[in-house]
Amino acid sequence: MASSRIDLSAATWRKSSYSNTSGGDCLEVADNVGGHVPVRDSKRPTGPVLVVTATAWAPFIAAVKVTTG
Fold first, then answer.
1. Which end of the chain is more exposed for a tag (fewer CB within 10 A), N or C?
2. φ, ψ for residue 39, nearest 5 deg
């Protein structure tokens, strides 16, 4: 399987609105990364990044909204 890297050097990260407000469990996402949504742990900004397509991200967020009400 071929691997393609996405350049995140210019990514602007923001804390997810679904993150814990007490400073504990925080996710950050980067917008405008060419049809992809990078996600990382805010406590490990140089750690691994999960990258999903924007097409997959939309139903994921819809499911989270239903679950968390």
1. N
2. -130, 135
pLDDT-derived band at 26 (thresholds 50, 70, 90) equals confident
Q: Name the burial class of residue 38, with classes exposed (0-12), middle (13-18) and buried (19+) by CB atoms within 10 angstroms of its CB.
A: middle
pLDDT grade for 16, boundaries at 50, 70 and 90: confident
pTM of the entire predicted model? 0.74
Q: What is the CA radius of gyration of the chain?
A: 13
Mean per-residue pLDDT of the chain: 82
Cross-strand pairs, 53: 36
Name residues whose C-beta falls within 8 Å of residue 23's C-beta, 6 or more positions apart in sequence.
none
Q: Is 14 helix (H, G, I), strand (E, B) or coil?
A: strand
